[in-house]
Task: structure prediction
Amino acid sequence: MQAIDYLWLIPALPLAGAAVNGVLAYRQAPKPAVTAVALGAPLASLLVAAACIWQYLAGGLYPRAVEQVSYAWTPGTVDGLHINVAFLLDPLAVVMLFIVTFVGFLIHVYSVGYMGHDEGYARYFAYLNLFMAAMLTLVLGNNYLVMFFGWEGVGLCSYLLIGFYYDQEFPPYAGKKAFIVNRIGDCAFLIGMFALVARFGTLDFMPIFHRLATEPRLGMASYAGGLSFAAFVGLCFFIGAIGKSAQIPLYVWLPDAMAGPTPVSALIHAATMVTAGVYMAVRSNVIYQLTPGVSLFVAIIGTATALLAATIGMAQNDIKKVLAYSTVSQLGYMFMAVGVGAYHAALFHVLTHAFFKALLFLGSGSVIHAMGGEQDMQKMGGLKKHLPVTYRTFVVGSLALAGIPVFAGFFSKDEILAAAAASGMPLHWLFWGVGWITAGLTAFYMFRAVYLTFDGTFRGTHEQEHHLHESPPVMTVPLIILAVGAVVAGWIEIPLLHGTQWFHRFLESVVATLPAIGAIQGGAPTGTRELGTPTEAILIVLSVGLALAGILLARSIYGGAGGAERGLAFEERYPALHRLLANKWYVDELYDAIVVRPLHGLSWVFYRVVDVLLVDGSIRAGAAVTRATGDLGSLTTTGNVRNYALYFFLGVLVLFWWIAR
Amino acid sequence: MSGIHLVNESMSVPVSWYLMLSVALFAIGTAGALTRRNGISIFLSIEVMLNAANLALVAYSRQLDQRTGQILVFFVLAVAAAEAAVGLALFIAVYRQRRTIDINRINLMRH
Result:
């Protein structure tokens, strides 16, 4: 039996789990049954995935792309367009498959503890399993349509889980916001797919990439609006990624998405779904390699997002908001890497980020659990003696995020910064510089959160303090496993351990630079230069130094007893700046003024004038005429026999006149 | 056979006179049926209308020298008798229910 023949089982198992738990949610099933299904489905999926990966790597299949057609969706009926429900396993899919199944399963385990007392226990796991199914479809699909199917599926689950607490006011609103903002990007994604179908008559990855790689002129031919074909498709796909991966200007949904349960934030809004845009861009790297202009645009957007979100993160007091803006910021790094052509670095950061950001979110969930739902860091403090495991793992995650050596984030972030500095793009030193400053800000805001939460003295109510407790093992064990991952996940890229950067080489068959590009463009503006070991060493020292400075600054302000008060005083010193950052640069207010309100106004006009006045009005007018005629006619129905006799008589007269006429 | 033709054609009353009388009776009956409030009076008016029709039938029968019209009159008389019987029974029933046969006050057919 070939494990790899059962690739389709990987998304199918969680789908079955979702179906079963969806039914159980209505049957008041006992909790152990729900738990068994909820954990069994992703575990089975993880085991199948492990078997497939093992066979792929050890069975001599690497580095080929293995395709499995499960079902002919449109068997050649639509203008010869062939769409199959087919799955693909290649090095890129292997990495994503590992992240999604492994981290996803850990978060399922954690959720058993975190959601244990929730009434919607079965409903929660039905959604979460459905999410796994959609996300695995997304990463395993072998064409853009199957990918898009998963893409929309994860969007749906995101919506369902953000609005999980539907009896409160804000979560359903946040869910709708996420769904609508994502639609903007999805629309562009669809247009990009249409362009591909029109040009190639297929949506399968391999034929498209093969033709573009062997005939680059096809991609560089002028297409629409002064853009080349590759630029047009690349731009459309990037707009899709902007929505899904929360980049400027569509990032606004992600911070609000924190209204969902915390494990959801860890799984969907940090580790997996939001990285789908990065995955898609890396998957489509052939297209981006053909269009330096769009790549530059991607890098600019990513860099700007990284900086903007990091500045906002410095002034948030909600622990989950800090992590949310941190996620947006890290996604910005990933797109910076995509933009400068370091696709392997982008995916590497996806991998390490999945570990340490999932860890941080689950850690914050453990804190919130202990605090009885409190998320305001100003009301925490001194939690390290009550929550020792959470504290230690959270610090590991923060060090990884801050980019301190040995921890995973250091390797991936540094690879991105080095790639930015080494790229032949215009502005590449600006990318490096902004990325460098953002790294310092990241270290600062993350340790601000650590010190406010765990250091100093407890600032909550007496009752909360009484209830403080470390989370049960079902929650802390995933934390510990993720913490180990947050340390060692970066080691695969240490040149000393493997002779060369192992991860980079592992992905080479997917992200290799197209040989034809340099010849055509003459001097290859996207090509990378060798930086040389001394320069690289200086860059590393600079970024680590700034990260350490950020940590020390956070420690000097927020650390120790009275840190929170000192912090408030520090923030008071720059009132205008603090207000600007705490209010998120007023971006939500800006969108409200230029998009939401005009749209409301327009819909008010359509409602009042078009619907009520014209549509309803015409129907009401018809009804009124009928009613008036009826009322008039009913005047003859007096009930008096003599009147009826008169009508009868008149009728006879008319009849006679008619005959005698 | 001479006994049969007692009436001299030249001396007989012209058929148009019968018809005018019939029309007058019918108009009187119609007016009565439409204006009277008492149910019995309306019945009597309808009887007048029926007999106006009978008169016209007999007159034509004679004018055209055919017996069909006279036969028809028997039918009309029979139906009128039956109608009177049923109608009176109805009015008695209505009177028992409502203590009146004023049809202005019997207007349950109003919508």
Chain A has three domains: 1-290, 292-582, 588-660.
